[in-house]
Specification:
The chain is built from 21 helices and 13 strands. It folds into 4 domains: about 140 residues, no CATH class; about 180 residues, no CATH class; about 35 residues; about 70 residues, no CATH class. The chain is globular and about 105 Å long. It is α+β, with helices and mostly antiparallel strands. Helix 12 packs parallel to helix 18 and helix 16 runs antiparallel to helix 17. Helix content is about 60%, strand content about 10%.
C-alpha cells in the first residue's frame, strides 16, 4: 500500500489497531513495530478468557461489514487456515443496519436507467433482508404483476470494500514479513484470493448466471430449484428474481416423513451438482435454503459457486477411493495430481501428515464423515506445500453445510447414505472402457501434437540463441523489507548530506557580517544553525527510537 493511501486512511488504520489491541493482539502488533502509544488500550477479562479464534471473530465483527464479508469468504478456505478458526469464522453474521430506502432507490434508478415506478408498480421500503453488500426488497413488476425480490447493492460499498481490502493487504504483508509463525499461512496470497472472490460477489450478473445455470442443469425440478432470474432488469449492482416465500429449515413445520424426504432431496441435489453436473452451490447453509409452503427446497444466494471439470471429478474419485481405504500413500499421490503448484512436495512428510489426520479417525472411517475428513486433509496438504484448487475446498464446505441443513430437517439424516450412490456412479463412470479409451486417445493425441511441434519450438530457441535474444527473467520474492531498508538508508544519508551542507554553509556565512544581524551575527547563519539542529535532533530521535531507520 502506498504511503499516501495510508495517510488518507489514517483514521481507519488507528481504528483497526485499537480494535485489535482491545481483543488481545498487541503482541502481534508489537512484532510489526507499531508505535507503543497506539497499544495502550485495555483488554477486558472477558476477552482474556476467549480462545484466539473467538477473539479474532469478535474483532472482525467490530471492524464492520467489510471485514465480516472477508471473514466469511476466508471460512471457505479450510486448506489454508486451521479447522478451529474456520469454525469460528463460519459463525460470523451480517448484522448490518438497513440503509435508508431513498439511498437504495437512487442506486435502483441508476441501474434501471429510469424511474423505478416505471418498472415496479410497488416496492416495500422495509427490506426483507439486509447484508454487508446489499439488501433485498419485495416488489411487484408493473408489466406482468409478478412478485419479485429486488437485490440492490449498497451505495459506495465497492469503494469501501476496496479501501479496507488495501489496508488488509498492507497488514497481511507486514505480518508475513515480520511474524515468523504466520509465514506458513502465506497471508498475502490469501488476500489476493480474497480480492478475486469479492470481485465476483460484487458483480450480481455472476450470481444471476449461476442461478440460471443451476436451473438449466437441475433434474430435481420442481422439488428443488433456484429463483427465476429476470435478466432484463439485472445489472452488476442490481439483481431481480422471483420472490420465493419460505422459511429456514429450522423453522419448517413438516411431518416427520415429509421432512426426511426433503432432507434427502436436498442432499441428492447437492451431490448431483458436485459429481454429475460439476457445478454446485458452494454455501448451502441453513440461511441460504428456504422450505416453501408446498414442501419444496429453494437454494438462494448464488454468490459463491464451485465448478469441477470432468478431469477434476475423476481425480476426486481417486482421492475419495484413497480416503475410504485410509491409504496415506494413495492420498498423497492423488493430492499431488490435484495440486495447482508445479513444485513437488516432500512425499514422506506429506504421507506423515495424512497419517496423522487418519489417526484422528482411529475407530474407522465412515462415509458420513466424508466432509470433515476432506477438510482436515485439505489443511494438512496445504501446510505441506500442496496447493489444492479452491473448488475442492468449496466442495468440502458444501457437503458439511448440506449435512447440517439436513439434520435441521431430519435429526437422523445420514449424509453417507446420500453420498454413496453418487460416489459409486462416479467410480463406474471413470472405469467404463469407453471413457478409458476416450481419455487414452485424447492423451496420446495431445502428446503426439506436442511431439510434432517440438522441432519448430527447438528451431525458434536456437534462432533466438544465435541472435543473442535468449534471456532469463528473474522475479524476486519477499524482498520488500530489504527494499524498504535500502530506501530508508538512502533517505537517512540524504538527511546527513543536507545536515553537513547546512552546518558548513552556516559557518561560512556567520563570519561574513552580512546583514541583517541578530546579536551581532548574520541572521542567515543563525537560521542555518537552527535548521541543522532540528534535522540533527530528528535523525538522533529516529535512531534511538528504532535502532535503525524503518
Amino acid at each position: 500500500m502506498k504511503p499516501l493511501a495510508l495517510l488518507r486512511d489514517a483514521g481507519r488504520v488507528r481504528e483497526i489497531l485499537t480494535i485489535l489491541v482491545r481483543y488481545g493482539f498487541s503482541n502481534l502488533l508489537e512484532q510489526m513495530n507499531v508505535p507503543r502509544r497506539l497499544l495502550k488500550v485495555v483488554t477486558s477479562r472477558r476477552v482474556q478468557e476467549m480462545t484466539s479464534g473467538e477473539r479474532l471473530r469478535h474483532a472482525i465483527e467490530d471492524l464492520g461489514p467489510t471485514f465480516v464479508k472477508m471473514g466469511q469468504l476466508l471460512s471457505t478456505r479450510p486448506d489454508r487456515i486451521p479447522a478451529p478458526l474456520v469454525k469460528e469464522l463460519e459463525k460470523l453474521q451480517n448484522k448490518v443496519k438497513p440503509a435508508p430506502f431513498e439511498n437504495m432507490r437512487a442506486v435502483l434508478k441508476t441501474e434501471l436507467g429510469r424511474d423505478p415506478e416505471e418498472v415496479l408498480s410497488e416496492i416495500d421500503a422495509e427490506p426483507v433482508g439486509s447484508g454487508s453488500i446489499a439488501q433485498v426488497h419485495r416488489a411487484v413488476l408493473r408489466a406482468t404483476g409478478e412478485v419479485v425480490a429486488v437485490k440492490i447493492q449498497r451505495p459506495g460499498i465497492e469503494r469501501a470494500i476496496l479501501a479496507d481490502l488495501d489496508l488488509f493487504a498492507w497488514f497481511a504483508k507486514e505480518i508475513h514479513e515480520r511474524v515468523e509463525a504466520a509465514r506458513p499461512y502465506n497471508i498475502p496470497d490469501l488476500v489476493e484470493v480474497l480480492r478475486e472472490m469479492l470481485a465476483v460477489e460484487l458483480d450480481f450478473t455472476s450470481e444471476a448466471r449461476s442461478a440460471a445455470l443451476f436451473n438449466a442443469r437441475n433434474p430435481h425440478f420442481p422439488r428443488v430449484f433456484a429463483p427465476k432470474v429476470f435478466d432484463d432488469f439485472t445489472t452488476k449492482r442490481l439483481l431481480v428474481t422471483e420472490y420465493v416465500k419460505g422459511t429456514p429449515p429450522s423453522a419448517a413445520t413438516l411431518e416427520k416423513t415429509k421432512a426426511r424426504e426433503l432432507a434427502r432431496a436436498g442432499a441428492d441435489s447437492i451431490f448431483h451438482q458436485i459429481i454429475v453436473s460439476g457445478f454446485f452451490h458452494a454455501d448451502p447453509h441453513p440461511g441460504n435454503i428456504l422450505v416453501t409452503q408446498d414442501g419444496r427446497i429453494c437454494f438462494i444466494d448464488w454468490g459463491v459457486a464451485g465448478q469441477l471439470t470432468r478431469r477434476m471429478r475423476y481425480r476426486l474419485a481417486d482421492l475419495l477411493d484413497a480416503v475410504v481405504h485410509m491409504d496415506p500413500e494413495k492420498v498423497a499421490h492423488a493430492a499431488i495430481a490435484l495440486a495447482e503448484n508445479s513444485r513437488r512436495p516432500d512425499d514422506e512428510a506429506l504421507e506423515m501428515a495424512v497419517t496423522r489426520v487418519f489417526n484422528r479417525y482411529a475407530g474407522g472411517f465412515r462415509l458420513s464423515q466424508i466432509g470433515h475428513v476432506i477438510v482436515d486433509l485439505l489443511y494438512a496438504l496445504g501446510r505441506n506445500g500442496v496447493r489444492i484448487p479452491r473448488d475442492y475446498t468449496l466442495l468440502a464446505r458444501a457437503v458439511i453445510c448440506i449435512e447440517n441443513t439436513g439434520r435441521q430437517l431430519d435429526p437422523d439424516f445420514d449424509i453417507g447414505s446420500a453420498a454413496r450412490p453418487f460416489i459409486l456412479r462416479l467410480a463406474r463412470e471413470r472405469s467404463r472402457p469407453r471413457n478409458i479409451a476416450r481419455n487414452l486417445a485424447w492423451t496420446v493425441g495431445a502428446n503426439l501434437q506436442k511431439l510434432g511441434e517440438f522441432p519448430g519450438d527447438a528451431q525458434r530457441v536456437l534462432r533466438r540463441l544465435d541472435r543473442d535474444e535468449l534471456g532469463i527473467t528473474l522475479h524476486h520474492k519477499n524482498l520488500e523489507g530489504f527494499g524498504n531498508d535500502v530506501q530508508a538508508s538512502a533517505n537517512r544519508l540524504s538527511l546527513a548530506v543536507i545536515l553537513g551542507s547546512a552546518v558548513i554553509g552556516s559557518s561560512i556565512v556567520i563570519t561574513t557580517g552580512v546583514r541583517p544581524l541578530i546579536w551581532g551575527y548574520p541572521a542567515i547563519g543563525i537560521l542555518g544553525y537552527l535548521l541543522s539542529g532540528v534535522i540533527g535532533m530528528y535523525v538522533a530521535f529516529d535512531i534511538l527510537r528504532h535502532g535503525r531507520h524503518k
